[in-house]
Amino acid sequence: LDTASVHCVTQRYTQHYLITLNMSEETNGQENGSVPEVELIIKASTIDGRRKGACLFCQEYFMDLYLLAELKTISLKVTTVDMLKPPPDFRSNFEATPPPILIDNGLAVLENDKIERHIMKNIPGGHNLFVQDKDVAQRTENVYSKFKLMLLKRDDSSKNILLNYLRKINDHLGERGTRFLTGDTMCCFDCELMPKLQHIRVAGKYFADFEIPDELDHLWRYMFHMYQLDAFTQSCPADQDIINHYKQQQGTRMKKHEELETPTFTTSIPASIHA
Fold first, then answer.
1. What's the whole-number mean pLDDT along residues 58-72?
2. DSSP run (H or E) holding 77
3. What is the pTM of this model?
4. What number of other Cβ atoms are within 10 A of residue 53's Cβ?
5. Do residues 130 and 120 lie in contact, with contact meaning Cβ atoms separated by under 8 Å?
6. SS3 string of 104-125?
7. Which residues, listed in sequence order, are joined to residue 18 by a DSSP beta bridge?
8. Were 165 and a residue from 40, 48, 52, 143 both cysteine, which residue would form a disulfide, CB within 3.0 to 4.6 Å?
9. pLDDT-derived band at 273, boundaries 50, 70, 90
10. Cα distance between residue 18 and residue 240, in whole Å
11. Confidence of residue 93 (pLDDT cuts 50, 70, 90)
């Protein structure tokens, strides 16, 4: 994982496959100790126990912090932990608390709303990510619940309801004329919405044959811009992990051949969409 502004080193420690990625080893020519180091513990893949799992909150905070690491206000370490076989040091430190877990200067922040608040108020540069926009909040807040309803019912009615919510987001992007939800730079709303859109795209197709229509061109253009960003691609789980996430919720067992599949990442857009 190498970019112009963020350097990642992968290291495995303990017998239970915790993977760490140290980001921003060097900052503006200075040693890494000149910026605070923040660690984010995220759920590992339920397929191999090592790569990134399909936890929406984990990816959201990964994206938030990755953007700050790119700005070189922090050094970020991301650790995946297999919750099916959590290592002793994880159990002794956090007991049964599931990721995401944020560790900042020795302080562990365990609850999602507290993690968000901590990034906003305590992480250098974090306040810039958390903009206020009631229109964006209203248009995006229910899309995931409608997706979950569609996965449950898998009928035309639930598909149309989800489509209506996606159309609202598409219309908003068209009205704003910006690359992202609130402007031409990413914010907390983008880090929250885009992982959900990826789940809708991948799992919606797999379980309910639902596809985002080409006619939602503003939404597709938005997704195209997100697919170009390291903050999304480095934090995004594989298609197989997204699918297995919902299989587990439905009580479906994974087949042996699925464990052996090479991870794939769906990032294509319709040919009719002009970025």
1. 96
2. strand 75-81
3. 0.88
4. 26
5. yes
6. ECCEEECCHHHHHHHHHHHCCC
7. 13
8. 143
9. confident
10. 20
11. confident
